[in-house]
Amino acid sequence: MPSAPRRPPGRAGRKGGAGRTGLAPARVAALRRRLLGWWDAGHRALPWRFPQGRADPYAVWLAEVMLQQTRVEVVVPYYRRFLARWPTLEALAGADEEELLAAWSGLGYYARCRNLLAAARESIRRHGGLPRTPEELRALPGFGPYTAGAILSIAFDARQPILEANTTPSLEPFEALALSARWAGLDYPALVDRMLSAALRRCWNQA
């Protein structure tokens, strides 16, 4: 059996606290500043983006569910109509399923809508609102790691990195790593966790 190739020197475990990400703290801080600067300069004004400390967890969740596999420009009018008809989690929990599905018509992936209603009812019944821990959120219908992380970080400003298919490609240009394809696989969850700014977690995850 051929011997395993050696990892290039100077990567994970080097001095300076690079650890599993392979990047020194100063490099992580620079990447954080660069991405947050990009966010400040170019993010779009959308109805589900709230000022610091004023996010509505229910509205954040509704947007995250609607945006799954659906374009932003399609979601905006649906989002506004939904909030006008069911403005709170309690209102959604009391909604008629047929009326809800009719309002969802055109967004597709109707399991999202059914899970939305089931999760709203279970949240009210078990917690009196949306819970604030990843374990409790992920126990609700339709919640995976990404949705739970988005709500916790954007609505509750929790230190909760979120990863989806677009995260790795968006990080790669910032790093410009001159590594062979064999060693280009950094520990992205660890990198994202280290890049979370204590004061701007909601902005980082939206960026």
What is the element layout, followed by pairings?
Layout: H1 25-42, H2 57-66, H3 72-85, H4 89-93, H5 97-104, H6 111-127, H7 134-138, H8 145-155, H9 167-175, H10 188-195, H11 201-206
Helix pairs in contact: 2-3, 2-8
Structural overview:
The protein has 207 residues and is mainly alpha-helical. The chain has two domains: 20-43 and 163-206; 57-155, Hypothetical protein, domain 2 (Endonuclease III, domain 1), CATH 1.10.340. It contains eleven helices and no strands. It has helices spanning 25-42, 57-66, 72-85, 89-93, 97-104, 111-127, 134-138, 145-155, 167-175, 188-195, 201-206. The longest helix is centred in the N-terminal third of the chain and has 18 residues, at 25-42. The termini are far apart.
Total count of helical runs of at least 4 residues: 11
CATH superfamily of the largest domain: Hypothetical protein, domain 2
The ordered string of helix (H) and strand (E) elements is HHHHHHHHHHH
Could you say how many structural domains there are in total?
A: 2
* CATH class bucket of the largest domain: Mainly Alpha
* Main sheet record: none
| Low confidence ranges | 1-17, 165-184, 198-205
> What is the averaged pLDDT score?
74
Architecture (CATH level 2) name of the largest domain: Orthogonal Bundle
How many strand units? Answer: 0
Taken as a percent bin, the fraction of beta residues is under 5%
Class by alpha and beta content: mainly alpha
N- and C-termini, Cα separation:
45 Å
Helix content percent band: 40-55%
Question: CATH fold name of the largest domain, please?
Answer: Endonuclease III, domain 1
